[in-house]
Design a protein that fits this description.
Layout lengths: L1 E5 L2 E5 L21 H4 L4 E6 L5 H4 L2 H7 L4 E3 L1 H13 L8 E3 L5 E4 L2 E7 L8 E7 L2 E5 L2 E2 L13 H10 L7 E2 L21 H4 L4 H9 L11 H6 L1
Parallel strand pairs: 2-3, 3-4, 4-5, 10-11
Antiparallel strand pairs: 1-2, 6-7, 7-8, 8-9
The structure holds zinc ion.
The site of zinc ion has 4 residues, from loops.
């Protein structure tokens, strides 16, 4: 979770969760501490979601229960959010607002533009945020894949122009994916990869199938969400 603040007005970006480390016995989920956002005099304008992975949306139901503000996200991201809110019985009172790639939304002093990024889940976006003191680019997770499975590469042209125009702050996270068909059959009987976060690493599924085809390997899924939906 990120928060940008200007004169007590706050824009929140993503609301994920983490799973506990091995030393966190008895802990089921690690949730963001939002006590700062709840302090008197502070106005949270909304929560902007970058993509539908659990470490970006998993904490949202817990946050919305204490702070019911508008939530912005692309269609797939909100589609993954809805069952969570339903499970927590807060879907009806939640204010979900769908955005498309390239949209700009004015939230108080912040103008938030969505920029297409390629990731292991479709409909992921970076956020180019114009603030009163300059532009912030939140890339979220992205990779530079010229031929992604969903056909939507990272919008390098927009990033190039943003760079030319000037960016005050820009965090970057790049996703790296191993190429499993480069590992000879004799080396390993089974190759494990993660499609975790409740099956939301959707982009990896066709990639795994294509990697298995020229070898003697066969894809198999396991895990609660996978076996339920496979
Ligand atoms: Zn991600």
């Amino acid at each position: 979770m990120w928060a940008l603040e200007w004169q007590n007005q706050v824009l929140v970006i993503d609301a994920g969760l983490m799973f506990p480390q091995e030393d966190m016995l008895g802990i089921d989920l690690v949730l963001p501490d939002i006590s700062y956002l709840l302090e008197k005099g502070r106005k949270v304008l909304g929560i902007f979601l970058s993509h539908g992975h659990e470490d970006h949306i998993g904490g949202l139901p817990f946050v919305l229960k204490k702070l019911n503000v508008p939530v912005y996200g692309t269609r797939l991201t909100l589609g993954l959010v809805k069952p969570k809110l339903k499970e927590h019985r807060i879907l009806r009172e939640s204010d979900l607002r769908e955005v498309r790639v390239g949209d700009s939304v004015q939230l108080g002093p912040f103008r938030v533009e969505t920029v297409a990024v390629c990731h292991s889940i479709p409909d992921a976006v970076a956020l180019a945020i114009q603030t009163p003191v300059g532009r912030v680019v939140y890339t979220s997770d992205f990779k530079l894949d010229p031929a992604p499975p969903d056909g939507y590469p990272t919008d390098m042209e927009r990033f190039r122009r943003l760079g030319d125009e000037g960016v005050q702050l820009g965090p970057f996270r790049v996703e790296t994916v191993a190429v499993c068909h480069s590992i000879p059959d004799a080396v390993a009987l089974a190759i494990q990869t993660s499609c975790a976060w409740r099956c939301s690493s959707i982009g990896r599924s066709p990639w795994l199938g294509a990697a298995c085809r020229p070898t003697s390997r066969r894809p198999a899924s396991s895990g609660s969400s996978r076996s339920l939906k496979a």
